[in-house]
Design brief:
Blueprint lengths: L9 H5 L5 E2 L3 H9 L5 E2 L9 H7 L3 H16 L3 E7 H4 L7 E4 L11 H14 L5 H9 L4 E4 L18 E7 L4 E6 L15 H25 L2 E2 H9 L10 H15 L6 H12 L6 H13 L10 E7 L2 E6 L7 E4 L4 E4 L12 E2 L3 H4 L14 H4 L3 H11 L3 E10 L5 E7 L1 H7 L5 E6 L7 E7 L3 H14 L4
Parallel strand pairs: 1-2, 4-5
Antiparallel strand pairs: 3-6, 3-8, 6-7, 9-10, 9-13, 10-11, 12-17, 14-15, 16-17
């Protein structure tokens, strides 16, 4: 080896060393104490699934399957086409059955807000006369609990749906997919946050008897509404589609207001509906969610695909499903969000994460589009720079950039879309999720909003299951 002043290694002796470190920070820290500024990389070893990753690494079938999955997700064009009672749009939805958010769970394992929402739904339907009777009914197993996701539906927070509740019906003609969701109640003491008092039940009955019929009549006069087109506009007006939907709600109201005021109903009822929608900045969320569900469902059941098609929480567990692993749930403990609390509440009051609304992140918005909504930090905490950082980090685990959902501050770059479970495990970067917080105790309602990290074990389980399903080449 040539070591003279003209040799290839001469620069090592003449110049300051440049050192790149990876892995354990101890090495970089030791160099820093000696006056050397190392270049630190963010590499981490795969999170417990190295053997599974090795079995599918470089498999062209995985890349082909993932390209198809993310293309199908992006090509979906869900339209709002109807609004009907849940029993009329969900097959087999009979008395005694309730849907809920997240992976499957039984009453014995249900969290406080989920129990509260179940109690409220039983009171709303008239199946129980009071809260004690509702608890007894659920405790005896007289209530059949089933995940919304298993019935082409999604539900925010507790996500409890009973047969009489009105549901939006969205249809994507491109792939023949239908997805449903209830209407949004607003914030505070509402059913989806686990509240069940008289005011909660009274609001639900007003929504069933006034809000839903008038909205449906206006929709029939208007015709199908392209929800994806409204989301595209909302992202460019400061929304991210999960916890900030002020622009989307305004756009929807503008879209339907003309037809609404011509509905054959009393002026007082029309005015109440207009005021309710106008005063509810989260009204559009319950249209964003089924739009995202329809898009994600279009990408299901593609053999070999590691793309996530559902992320959901039931207040006890966080679960994910992947395109290439069918309807199997991979779960881990739901974490408690870190964020801002309403007056009078603190961390001890917050329940672990809950809701199907992470379908927004699954479809490339929500936490993945926080850079489009810098004002979101006033709701969930953090700084504007954090909103940018979260979005930029999500490109590391995404399969593509959305061709319709774009972020102005990033030069109209498409949002990161198509969560790749293998990239999550390989990089150690988990999906960014912003969320509301429900109180631990049944009946409390909302206590705050913040950010939460999904458990890595969900993605490890999905990658292992995918590797087991892929036949060797």
């Amino acid at each position: 080896m040539e070591t003279g002043t003209d040799g290839p290694l001469a620069s090592l002796l003449a110049d300051e060393p440049r050192v790149v470190t990876a892995g354990v920070s101890l090495f970089a820290d030791a160099l820093a104490t000696q006056g050397v500024a190392p270049v630190r990389t963010e590499w981490r070893p795969p999170a417990g699934a190295g053997d599974a990753l090795a079995r599918i690494a470089g498999d062209e079938r995985l890349d082909t399957a993932n390209r198809e999955a993310v293309e199908r997700l992006q090509s979906a064009r869900p339209h709002l086409v109807d609004l009907q009672a849940a029993r009329d749009v969900i097959d087999g939805f009979d008395d005694g059955m309730l849907l809920h958010a997240g992976p499957p769970i039984e009453w014995a394992d249900a969290s406080g807000p989920l129990r509260g929402a179940i109690i409220g739904a039983l009171l709303y339907e008239g199946w129980a006369d009071d809260a004690d009777a509702a608890v007894a009914m659920a405790g005896r197993g007289d209530v059949d609990l089933s995940p919304c996701h298993e019935h082409s539906s999604v539900g925010p927070m507790a996500g409890v749906v009973s047969p009489s509740m009105p549901m939006y019906v969205l249809h994507d003609e491109e792939h023949g997919i239908t997805a449903c969701c209830t209407q949004n109640e607003g914030l505070g003491k509402v059913l989806r946050y686990g509240a069940f008092g008289d005011e909660v039940v009274d609001r639900l009955r007003w929504m069933e008897r006034t809000l839903a019929p008038l909205t449906r009549a206006a929709l029939q006069a208007h015709g199908p509404i392209d929800v994806r087109a409204l989301i595209v506009q909302a992202l460019q007006m400061g929304d991210e589609g999960h916890n900030r939907n002020r622009a989307g709600s305004s756009l929807f109201l503008r879209e339907i207001a003309g037809d609404l005021i011509e509905v054959d109903a009393s002026t007082a009822d029309i005015a109440d509906v207009l005021r309710f929608i106008n005063g509810n900045d989260h009204f559009f969320l319950n249209l964003v969610m089924p739009a995202a569900k329809a898009a994600a469902d279009a990408a299901r059941d593609i053999p070999g695909s590691s793309m996530v098609v559902a992320m959901a929480r039931n207040g006890t567990e966080f679960g994910v499903q992947c395109s290439g692993t069918g309807d199997e749930w991979f779960t881990g403990p739901a974490g408690v969000p870190d964020g801002l609390f309403l007056s009078g509440y603190g961390p001890d009051d917050a329940n672990p994460d809950i809701g199907d609304s992470t379908i927004t992140e699954t479809a490339g918005i929500g936490g993945f589009a926080m850079a489009a909504a810098p004002a979101i930090v006033r709701f969930v905490g953090g700084e504007v720079s954090d909103a940018l950082r979260f979005t930029l980090s999500m490109y590391e685990i995404a399969l593509d950039e959305h061709d319709a959902y774009q972020i102005p501050i990033l030069g109209f770059r498409g949002t990161p879309v198509g969560i790749d479970a293998t990239k999550v495990v390989r990089t150690g970067v988990v999906p960014a999720v912003n969320t509301g917080m429900a109180g631990r105790e049944p009946g409390t309602g909302q206590v705050g909003a913040g950010l939460v990290e999904p458990p890595m074990e969900c993605f490890v389980g999905a990658v292992r299951a995918l590797a087991d399903r892929v036949e060797p080449t």
